[in-house]
């Protein structure tokens, strides 16, 4: 009986090693998967200029949801450009920064909804907390027109001399 | 007569294990989803079980068909079918209307929980018989 148990144990160990070795990629991917959040749970936190100023000075994650042309013309220093509908840039941002869990998004002004929409996409992609700067770049520019900053790139598709 | 009966049971169980194991091993993600429907393990547990169980089935099937380490294979067969029966019974008691996932992506409507439970009980019976009867050397058993 002892030999029977020992042999059964050998088979089990062999099966465990085979299974884990063959499927290690899938198990590893599952371990590092960012949990998907439901869009219904999306509740962005509206913020005002002083908060944005502190956020920017601390070098935290800032996302500009406007079209890239507008971003090129001027943006909050340190912000990444992720225009609505640009899935490549969105994925690049998620890949690089989702572990930072918090993001602040803005667009042109209170009349634009791109920041809200972009915030929702970032939330569903795994960002835990999304801050919305409703007044947007218009207010920012009025308050401190000298700060626009250099461009930040998320991938190599943007050629116009930004920093990484 | 008993000898042929034992050989037949070995081949039946072995073939079922080889078929079930290989279909699951070829599509681990689908099998992990099927295990997840039982709502008994966390997601990682489902994936680890889905990755390893098919190989346990394949090795057990190979041993049963080849006639080597047959009693150990019969013991593993008893353990696996006991585990399947417990999982299917809890699913039936909780009123889960799910595909059993017994044969991976190849399973059809005939693999509902009730049918799978009856089949697993029958195969558990065969495995137990094989394990018990192999305690007595077949060569000395009178036909």
Task: Explain the overall architecture.
- The complex is a heterodimer of chains A (164) and B (143).
- With 164 residues, chain A is of the alpha/beta class.
- Chain A has helices at 2-22, 24-31, 49-57, 68-73, 87-97, 114-124, 136-143; strands at 45-46, 62-64, 80-81, 102-106, 129-133.
- In chain A, α4 (68-73) links the parallel β2 and β3.
- The longest helix of chain A has 21 residues, at 2-22.
- Chain A is elongated.
- The termini of chain A are far apart.
- Mean pLDDT of chain A is 83; it is low at 156-164.
- Chain B has 143 residues and is mainly alpha-helical.
- Chain B is 72% helix and 0% strand.
- Chain B contains five helices and no strands.
- Chain B has helices at 2-26, 28-36, 43-66, 70-93, 113-133.
- In chain B, α1 (2-26) packs antiparallel against α3 (43-66), α1 (2-26) packs across α5 and α3 (43-66) packs antiparallel against α4.
- The termini of chain B are close together.
- Chains A and B meet through α1 and α2 of A and α3 and α4 of B.
What would you call the quaternary organization?
Answer: heterodimer
Largest sheet of chain A: 5 strands, parallel
What's the helix count of chain A? 7
What ranges of chain B have pLDDT less than 50 throughout 5 or more consecutive residues? Answer: 139-143
Largest sheet of chain B: none
N- to C-terminal distance of chain B? 5 Å
The average pLDDT value of chain B, as a whole number, equals 85
The two chains with the largest interface, and their residue counts, are: A-B, 18 and 25 residues
Protein structure class of chain B: mainly alpha
Estimated share of beta-strand residues of chain A? 5-15%
Q: Which ranges of chain A are low-confidence, i.e. pLDDT below 50, for 5 or more consecutive residues?
A: 156-164
Q: What pattern of helices and strands is seen along the backbone of chain B?
A: HHHHH
How would you classify the helix and strand content of chain A by structural class?
Answer: alpha/beta
